[in-house]
Amino acid sequence: MHLKNQSSSSRDEVDLVGGYYDARDNVKFGLPMAFTSTLLAWSVIEFSDSMKNNNRLENAKDLYSDPSYSTKLLKTAMEVFDFADRYKGSYSDSLGSVACPFYCSYSGYHDELLWGASWLHRASEDDSYLAYIQSNGHTLGADEDDYSFSWDDKRAGTKILLSKGFFEDNIQQLQLYKAHSDNYICSLIPGSPNFQAQYTPGGLFYKGSESNLQYVTTSSFLLLAYAKYLRSHGGVASCGTSTITSDKLVALAKKQVDYILGNNPAKMSYMVGFGPRYPQHVHHRGSSLPSLHVHPAHISCGDGFQYLYSNSPNPNILVGAIVGGPDNRDHFADDRNNYQQSEPATYINAPFVGSLAFFSDETTGI
């Protein structure tokens, strides 16, 4: 596919072949894809030591290991952040007709500015971004504690990331974010004085009826990242008058990971292709339509609906994809038309990479 920009003076052709589609359709939405890329990179940053026993780490390095290209990316990211800060607003205010209702910026743009400044501070070591965080954090959601983390709402993840600066770099200005991170962690821990989260009878973290596993994979990643920071510095999470150890965080994350992989009331693995029982009717165009090898003739958009409504299992197994998952009673409908449960997405999978890397390492003691 080539995109042609026609102007009075020039015409540029941009090759759009390759890359990821965010979910079931052949569309590349920017906001969830940026989140996907960031969580994949964060997984490598935190858990690369657990990826050395196979070629996964080398594959990841192929994306970032060219120094001149990395420098260009950082410079461009700084320019984009400066533009976003100068001309504040949600991207879907202008692109609502194509981004909504799928990927509107429901939480607004404040969390993205704080998220961007936090990553730029780590990547550039430029203290101007730390000053930005200190000056603007209160108005960008830093004081608002919430127990969800997603492509749309970055607040919880930003606080965990900023707490790393306090733990590892001893940046005292970021101590506040250790306290906020504790609040987030404590909200997830059953029995904690600050407990707010909801869990299914089978023990799955439950946040929303559509693609709930996105919240499970993101919260599991943050639990493990924070557990790593605590372990490395002999710390605990403070929950009122109680304290929560890193082992408690790891145990909760493990329960969520095990549930996704089949240790649940339905004995269903929600990762396609993993285990003896997994979803057969995944809501995904490439998986549900026949391949060119089997059906070389053109299939029009209208003709494709027969495969959507078919009762037959998907002909192409989407190995490794994690679907939306069960409802709040641990019930799962293996039905393509129930996209809320059967649709996979890159932003569900991306945080799971770090969690699997963590648990694949025998040194974790799990």
Automatic annotation (TrEMBL):
Glycoside hydrolase family domain segment(s): 3-62, 65-355
Record SUPFAM superfamilies: Six-hairpin glycosidases
Q: Where is the active site?
A: H283, D334, E343
Q: Name one Pfam family in it.
A: Glyco_hydro_9
Which domain of life does the protein's organism represent? Eukaryota
Task: Report the EC number(s), separated by commas if there are several.
Answer: 3.2.1.4
Q: Which reaction is catalysed here?
A: Endohydrolysis of (1->4)-beta-D-glucosidic linkages in cellulose, lichenin and cereal beta-D-glucans
Q: Do the record's keywords include Hydrolase? A: yes
Keyword annotations for this protein, in alphabetical order, are: Carbohydrate metabolism, Cellulose degradation, Glycosidase, Hydrolase, Polysaccharide degradation
Q: What class of enzyme is it?
A: hydrolase
Q: Does the keyword Hydrolase apply?
A: yes
UniProt signal peptide: none
- InterPro entries linked: 6-hairpin_glycosidase_sf, 6hp_glycosidase-like_sf, Glyco_hydro_9, Glyco_hydro_9_Asp/Glu_AS, Glyco_hydro_9_His_AS
Q: Which family does the UniProt entry place this protein in?
A: Belongs to the glycosyl hydrolase 9 (cellulase E) family.
Query: Protein name, please?
Result: Endoglucanase
Organism name: Rehmannia glutinosa
